[in-house]
């Protein structure tokens, strides 16, 4: 049985349409996977090397697409996209002989070990997705060679080391996701990536300040790192729609220019060390901002009244800061119109709450607890104790 299996794996068809080195690369990949981790209904089960991979229409060789041969040339594998069946194996160096590949997707499996340097030979790739595996090691020796690549997703692996500065040579790149790995050191300047729209570096160990970023960036995710400095440079990125820099060590002000970016819809700066929120004297009718999360910072002063001018704002979280003074009366007029979430708990706000907080607050998700407010417990947002008077006086006197 073992002999028969090996014979079928290494069968060479005399009239094969597929280039023999491509067939051998597929064989090497299947052999690198633990056969006990190939479910009966998975793509790899359909890889039957007694037939030609490119001379097959039907249930054989699922996940494979080929080029159409011209003249007497052989067909080549152009797409290799496996299902997320939990394959446990490694990526063999022979994968680098599939030089006509434009798409490689092995995501949501259990592939492990280092990514082979032979990946640099896949210089026609436009899409590379290896997310959700257990790959280790670095990416600096090969990734910059993929000059035609448009989308790279290496998220949710065990990769480490630095993000190479030469990644800025990938001028066609529109999406780069390296989140949930162990990358460290500084983020290199990548402003040369003129087409990059999505940058996701969440959950690594990156340090230093914000790098120079591409002008067309729409989504920026840098949360759960160790980044420092200010975020003022974001004011130059007019195309930003979503920003998440939460759980870092950023300091200084939350700049008024950032909050006023024309396309910005989601803005999360929570769990940092910002000390001031600047809100433009700005009517906000053109703003698209819907979510503002600045909880757990060191924000001081009075609550920004001008937030009511952001007409599409729905979710506000300013909890666990050091705001003082009264809740602006204008906030009451925005409850439910369109504010539907308002967390102001764990500050040092004082005085009476706006009268609108009573009748409509039952429909509002949020909290005013742990302040210094006169806040009737019959109002849902007021449930939870207020601070002891001594704590309130200490802040007021300071």
Automatic annotation (TrEMBL):
<protein>
    <recommendedName>
        <fullName>Leucine-rich repeat-containing N-terminal plant-type domain-containing protein</fullName>
    </recommendedName>
</protein>
<dbReference type="GO" id="GO:0016020">
    <property type="term" value="C:membrane"/>
</dbReference>
<dbReference type="Pfam" id="PF08263">
    <property type="entry name" value="LRRNT_2"/>
</dbReference>
<dbReference type="Pfam" id="PF00560">
    <property type="entry name" value="LRR_1"/>
</dbReference>
<dbReference type="InterPro" id="IPR001611">
    <property type="entry name" value="Leu-rich_rpt"/>
</dbReference>
<feature type="domain" description="Leucine-rich repeat-containing N-terminal plant-type">
    <location>
        <begin position="20"/>
        <end position="67"/>
    </location>
</feature>
<dbReference type="InterPro" id="IPR032675">
    <property type="entry name" value="LRR_dom_sf"/>
</dbReference>
<keyword id="KW-0732">Signal</keyword>
<keyword id="KW-0472">Membrane</keyword>
<keyword id="KW-0677">Repeat</keyword>
<dbReference type="InterPro" id="IPR013210">
    <property type="entry name" value="LRR_N_plant-typ"/>
</dbReference>
<keyword id="KW-0433">Leucine-rich repeat</keyword>
<feature type="signal peptide">
    <location>
        <begin position="1"/>
        <end position="16"/>
    </location>
</feature>
<dbReference type="InterPro" id="IPR053213">
    <property type="entry name" value="RLP29"/>
</dbReference>
């Amino acid at each position: 049985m073992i002999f028969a299996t090996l014979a079928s794996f290494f069968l060479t068809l005399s009239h094969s349409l597929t280039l023999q080195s491509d067939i051998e690369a597929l064989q090497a990949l299947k052999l690198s996977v633990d056969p006990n981790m190939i479910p009966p209904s998975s793509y790899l089960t359909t890889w039957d090397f007694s037939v030609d991979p490119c001379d097959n229409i039907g249930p054989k060789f699922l996940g494979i697409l080929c080029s159409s041969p011209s003249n007497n040339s052989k067909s080549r594998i152009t797409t290799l996209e496996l299902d997320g069946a939990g394959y446990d194996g490694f990526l063999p160096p022979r994968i680098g002989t599939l030089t006509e590949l434009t798409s490689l997707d092995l995501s949501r499996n259990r592939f492990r070990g280092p990514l082979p340097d032979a990946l640099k030979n896949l210089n026609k790739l436009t899409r590379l997705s290896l997310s959700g595996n257990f790959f280790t090691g670095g990416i600096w020796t090969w990734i910059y060679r993929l000059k035609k690549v448009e989308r790279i997703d290496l998220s949710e692996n065990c990769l480490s080391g630095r993000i190479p500065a030469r990644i800025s040579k990938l001028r066609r790149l529109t999406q780069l996701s390296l989140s949930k790995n162990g990358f460290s050191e500084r983020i290199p300047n990548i402003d040369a990536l003129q087409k990059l729209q999505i940058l996701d570096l969440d959950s690594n160990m990156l340090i230093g300040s914000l790098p120079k970023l591409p002008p067309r960036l729409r989504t920026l995710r840098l949360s759960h790192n160790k980044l420092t400095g200010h975020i003022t440079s974001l004011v130059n990125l007019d195309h930003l729609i979503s920003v998440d820099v939460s759980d870092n060590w950023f300091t200084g002000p939350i700049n008024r220019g950032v909050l006023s970016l024309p396309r910005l819809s989601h803005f999360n700066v929570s769990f940092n060390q910002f000390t001031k929120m600047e809100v433009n004297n700005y009517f906000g009718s053109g703003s698209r901002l819907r979510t503002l999360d600045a909880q757990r910072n060191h924000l001081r002063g009075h609550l920004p009244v001008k937030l009511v001018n952001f007409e599409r704002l729905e979710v506000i979280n300013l909890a666990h800061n050091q705001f003082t003074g009264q809740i602006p009366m204008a906030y009451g007029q925005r409850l439910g119109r369109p504010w539907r979430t308002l967390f102001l708990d764990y500050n040092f706000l004082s005085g009476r709450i706006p009268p609108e907080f009573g009748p409509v607050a039952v429909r509002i998700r949020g909290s005013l607890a742990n302040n210094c407010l006169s806040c009737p417990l019959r109002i849902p947002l007021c449930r939870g104790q207020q601070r002891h008077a001594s704590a309130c006086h200490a802040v007021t006197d300071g």
